[in-house]
């Protein structure tokens, strides 16, 4: 629409054409108001029944809520209107009517359960506070991309249909690829590693991952968006520096560019993490968990951190932190072990007090060690020949990591459920829409 003005941009004394949804109709008898809503806000349209064309009044006041209309009229100052402005319509067209019964109420007066909201995401996202989550998500991705570019990283896109998984046959969704078994990729891990040995050296990818995890939790999806980073000639500590920088850049971007959205969501004290994130070794982490006395059973060296341990440690530390130097056993085979202590790996996790956000590490770039790792993991290196072969042609030392975008949004905005941070979640119960 060429001559459309957004409601936020209309000015008193001008004639304008606005377009949007009928948010509400308030009929007070001789006078009635239609509240029109667009993505920038709302505008009050005034109908003075005795002074206006009968057809216009009828069309304007008989239209159902959430219908799409366009209205042209003079904009006037009106201190009693919510925005201090109102429009006196000359014409009103209904572009798309809405049924009188709606599956959920976009004005938010009637609360809907999450499944109803997800079934009707279009209507759900007409609510400003739901829309705000996705504006913030978009800003996070923008700032993250900008940060990656500022540290010399190239954006790549790798295949999502693959012949073999990253860590073997578990947790993969099988598909049929021209009569051959294939899978939806669970991580760009192997592809991004192949790229650090290419002319690109330092890469990032933002894309979907697919995991056939059976569990149904508030922080797992079966399709998620991952932010992956991998760089040649860095060790795990330098990779953690970039990881920390990315996270801070995301918070800064949101603080700078999403003030309105944060206000809508009720964050008047949104804080950008400023201090360096503590880097606890795994050993320090389990000692600290045990010292909280929060767990029924003390952790011993070699245990993975159960959810309760993550929570106890999170509230003890009180902010983002890294856990480094994990036992090799519980980290994937492509993570490098310390030469002087092969029980210990150069893997790390970035934790938010509520949950794990990132896993990463220094990778094994030496061919013989890599192949041995596959075998120790019970995987057939032959199947991964496309990957291991490149380690015979000059693969530099490298490190990297991966975030879940939804977990970043969820922890940043303190959402209860990861499904709030994705438009159309895929989980055990949900394949449509
Ligand atoms: P968790 O132990 O919490 O299930 P993970 O260790 O299996 O996660 P990684 O393979 O380390 O996950 O993936 C890197 C990051 O991707 C995680 O730290 C998390 O932020 C995100 N992620 C992984 N799996 C999921 C999932 N099923 N749903 C949403 N995000 C996920
Ligand atoms: Mg992990």
UniProtKB/TrEMBL annotation:
Metal-binding found in the keyword field: yes
Needed cofactors, names only, are: Mg(2+)
Instruction: Locate the residues binding L-aspartate.
Output: 167, 211, 359, 363
- This protein's source sits in the domain of life called Archaea
Site (Important for tRNA non-discrimination) at 82
Give the residues the record marks as binding Mg(2+) 2: 356, 359
Q: Where is this region: Aspartate?
A: 189-192
Would you name any one GO CC term?
A: cytosol
Enzyme class label:
ligase
Predominant location: cytoplasm
Q: Which reaction does it catalyse?
A: tRNA(Asx) + L-aspartate + ATP = L-aspartyl-tRNA(Asx) + AMP + diphosphate
Asked if the Swiss-Prot or TrEMBL record annotates the protein with the keyword ATP-binding, the reply is yes
> Where does the record locate the signal sequence feature?
none
Q: Which GO terms describe its biological process?
A: aspartyl-tRNA aminoacylation
Binding positions (Mg(2+) 3): 356
Which residues hold ATP?
211-213, 219-221, 356, 404-407
EC number in record: 6.1.1.23
What's its job?
Aspartyl-tRNA synthetase with relaxed tRNA specificity since it is able to aspartylate not only its cognate tRNA(Asp) but also tRNA(Asn). Reaction proceeds in two steps: L-aspartate is first activated by ATP to form Asp-AMP and then transferred to the acceptor end of tRNA(Asp/Asn).
Quaternary data: Homodimer.
Q: What is this protein called?
A: Aspartate--tRNA(Asp/Asn) ligase
| Originating species | Haloplanus rallus
Q: What is this organism's lineage?
A: Archaea, Methanobacteriati, Methanobacteriota, Stenosarchaea group, Halobacteria
